[in-house]
Design brief:
The complex is a heterodimer of chains A (about 425) and B (about 325). Chain A is α/β, with parallel strands linked by helices. Chain A contains eleven helices and 18 strands. In chain A, helix 9 runs parallel beside helix 10. Chain A starts with a helix and ends in an 8-residue tail after the last strand. The N terminus of chain B is likely disordered. The chains are: A alpha/beta (about 425), B alpha/beta (about 325). At the A-B interface, helix 2, helix 6 and helix 7 of A face helix 1, helix 2, helix 3, helix 6 and helix 7 of B.
Chain lengths: ~425, ~325
């Protein structure tokens, strides 16, 4: 209710945009008697221009991390600890993040209707249910297609870790918004050097020849996919000679940075994410996998949380000191939570009924908890947040138009976060 | 075009590299094209209207909502009872078996569809048939209002435009500056989709193009609210010119060679809220100027030459001020 009330004051801020709904309101009401759904009240000045999305694939156990239930019989051997914000407690697996709670907004009332990994992951990334007939874009593709790149040589959308077969990539948008995938953060950008046997002149000749050979094909099929294909060549060549390539080189960071972010691959990925954001990459997603703790839940969660706790803490500090946290939204997302009850293998099963996600930076007001679950973390007791609403909040922070209808090539209408509404209490 | 093809082997490898992939894409491309054409076909209306008013659109949609629920099951794409289709302009205005036009634009009383709807429910010609749900009073009114107003059928293009409430900020002068900055590797964009103020990031400007970019930048004047010039080797004139950006709220000078004296030029920025001096050579002496910027809320001094005592003193000088220093 609170949110809906907050949305009411925003119409007064229109200046340049011509608000067609204004004319409609009168007519629409008189003839049909219903408020037009398209009357947008959702855009405001953005606080973030970049996003670092930390995706915990497999389904993070909410009750062993950000939503602990000390009185619950199946909480297991994990204690709760105080944070630097009084009244907010988290699990002892997150000692460093607890000290940075003033920067975090924990959403404890996420829910989804997708209980399988792939479908849940897809829903989290796109706000749409997985369908056979269409591929929906993820937030990085939306951001880059609507606002464009900052650095014209580097890709605008990068994904570190996880599989190459990205969920929530470019979807039906132009293929050029597909994220660049880097398997190992320490290997830098592979295949970026010119082959030693090919000199500069020969390289240019080859490109020229390729252009000549492709010319008739391009004229015959002037479609998006073909264009994107030749764009890739051009961008790759531009990148090969760019000074921004050093963004991918983690050895440029002092030993202290490496120490602060931790020795894990996830930590390295966070350093790379920060470097890329500094170099004008707008969206970096870091995948941290293995959260599907059906067996030995507590041992596994403890091992998984450690690199995340250290890495994300260092990332937040680093962004903060560099003055970048204000304009960089940091998201911790996962496809679902895990059951309050331990199974016979001391594990927890999938639990989309309630789970936790975290936002920080990018205009988000830190030190708050939004929503709550019951005494065992099973059901939501207040302020439930759907996946589209969560994604709408992200898009809202980035200044994207939530109710802009974008058509797929097949003519079907889509929106950044489906019909999600941003949670304004978080800002 | 100059080409040096020495051996056929080389040619073959070229062919393999650049031709194989496009060929394998052909079928996918055709599929895409089909889809794009289908989409375009939808927007190409039988006779495009120059301008459909918002009112006409609203009337059309209200009427369509009713007709979709009550008419199209039997007189639509799948079934055409009595040879009648109502979901298409041409068919509906010609009529079916009876030869009487179902819809006469501008005249609801002459429109057969209205006549049949207004018949008593028990009449055997009443539409929808007695066994089906009757159209409500309000529903009939919606159809009548639409027909009376000329029964305008907007084309797909108008409908699409209508659904999206956003008319993108389309100021040709601003667009020209944005494009010019873009062409030298910088990035200028509107603050958000409903806000015409401008954010500019010049930190990735192409080498040697900085002065060009700065010249373009000055055209924004008071439209500029964010400026990022981090890591750049800025000419001293840059600081002297800063005063013209009277609405500047956020300024990134991190990793630049900004000097203590240069900061004096910032005093005129009455809206400045955020100032990033991370990794600069600023010393305690430069902070004097910052104290004069009343609007300042956040200053980043990490990695600079400022002492922690001076940073703390700056933070104490104003209640609202957050100084980040390490």
């Amino acid at each position: 209710m609170y949110d809906e009330l907050q949305q009411l004051d925003e119409l007064s801020r229109r200046k340049f945009i011509q608000y067609s709904a204004k004319a409609l309101l009168g007519v629409g009401l008189a003839s049909v008697g219903q408020t037009p759904l398209w009357a947008s009240q959702m855009v405001r000045k953005p606080t973030a221009k970049n996003i670092i999305y930390i995706y915990l694939s497999g389904g993070m156990s909410h009750i062993d991390t950000f939503d602990p239930k000390p009185g619950w019989q199946d909480q297991g051997p994990v204690e709760t600890i105080a944070t630097n914000v009084s009244g907010i407690r988290v699990s002892e697996y997150l000692p460093s993040l607890a000290k940075r709670m003033d920067k975090l907004a924990i959403i404890r009332s996420m829910y989804s209707n997708q209980g399988a990994h792939e479908q849940g992951n897809y829903f989290m990334h796109t706000s749409y249910e997985k369908r056979g007939t269409i591929k929906h874009p993820g937030i990085g593709a939306w951001l880059n297609s609507m606002s464009g790149k900052t650095n014209s040589t580097l890709p605008g959308n990068v994904r570190i870790g996880g599989s190459n077969n990205a969920i929530g990539g470019a979807g039906f948008l132009d293929s050029k918004y597909e994220p660049l995938h880097l398997g190992n953060p320490e290997e830098g950008l592979p295949h970026i050097k010119r082959h030693p046997s090919v000199d500069e002149i020969e390289m240019q000749e080859r490109m020229e020849l390729a252009r000549m050979m492709d010319l008739t094909f391009h004229q015959k099929y002037p479609s998006k996919k073909v264009r994107a294909y030749s764009d890739v060549y051009e961008e790759a060549i531009k990148l090969m000679t760019s000074k921004d390539l050093e963004a991918f080189d983690l050895s440029k960071e002092p030993p202290l940075t490496h120490k602060l972010y931790g020795d894990s691959r996830f930590g390295k990925s966070c350093i790379l994410a920060r470097r890329l954001i500094e170099h004008g990459v707008r969206c970096v997603e870091v995948t941290h996998g293995g959260w599907d703790t059906h067996n030995d839940n507590h041992d596994n969660v403890a091992q998984l949380t450690n690199p995340m706790d250290v890495g994300v803490s260092a990332l937040l500090d680093d962004l903060h000191y560099r003055g970048l946290l204000d304009e960089t939204l940091v998201v911790i997302g996962t496809e679902f939570g895990r059951t309050p009850e331990l199974n016979s293998n001391n594990g927890r099963n999938h639990h989309p009924t309630a789970f936790t996600c975290v936002l920080a930076g990018g205009g988000i007001k830190g030190g708050q908890v939004y929503g709550a679950t019951d005494e065992r973390g099973h059901s939501i007791t207040e302020n439930g947040v759907t996946v589209p609403n969560f994604n709408a909040t992200i898009a809202y922070a980035l200044g994207l138009p939530l109710d802009k209808i974008v058509y797929s090539p097949s003519g079907r209408p889509f929106q950044v976060a489906d019909k999600g509404q941003p949670i304004k209490a978080l800002f | 075009m100059q080409l040096r093809l020495n051996t056929t082997i080389r040619l073959r490898s070229y062919l393999f590299l650049f031709i194989a992939a496009p060929l394998s894409m052909t079928s996918a491309v055709e599929e895409m094209q089909d889809m794009e054409m289908a989409a375009d076909g939808m927007s190409a209306a039988p006779h495009a209207q120059a301008g459909v008013t918002q009112q006409e659109l609203a009337l059309f949609e209200a009427a369509q909502l009713v007709m979709k629920n009550h008419c199209y099951n039997c007189h639509g794409a799948t079934k055409q009872k009595g040879d009648l289709r109502l979901d298409q302009e041409v068919a509906a205005t010609t009529g079916g078996e009876s030869g009487v036009p179902s819809i006469v634009p501008g005249d609801a009383h002459a429109s057969y569809v209205v006549e049949r709807m207004l018949l008593p429910r028990e009449d055997e010609d009443a539409m929808p048939p007695e066994s089906k749900t009757a159209v409500t009073e309000a529903g009939i009114q919606a159809i009548v209002a639409w027909i009376e107003a000329g029964a305008v059928w907007p084309d797909m293009h108008a409908l699409r435009k209508r659904i999206s409430t956003y008319v993108e900020i389309d100021d040709p002068e601003t667009e020209a500056i944005i494009d010019a900055i873009d062409s030298v590797g910088g990035k200028a964009e509107y603050n958000s989709w409903d806000d015409p103020r401008i954010r500019v990031d010049l930190s990735f400007t192409d080498e040697g193009k900085l002065n060009e970019a700065l010249a373009e930048l000055s055209k924004f004047g008071d439209q500029l609210i964010w400026l990022d010039v981090s890591g750049l080797d800025l000419p001293s004139s840059f600081y002297a010119d800063l005063g013209q950006y009277t609405n500047l709220q956020r300024l990134h000078l991190d990793r630049t060679k900004v000097s203590d004296a240069d900061l004096a030029q910032l005093v005129g920025l009455k809206q400045l809220v955020y100032l990033n001096l991370y990794g600069t050579q600023i010393t305690d002496a430069g902070l004097v100027h910052l104290k004069q910027i009343q609007s300042l809320e956040k200053v980043f001094l990490g990695g600079s030459k400022v002492s922690s005592t001076a940073a703390k003193q700056l933070a104490r000088s104003k209640e609202e001020l957050v100084v980040v220093h390490r």
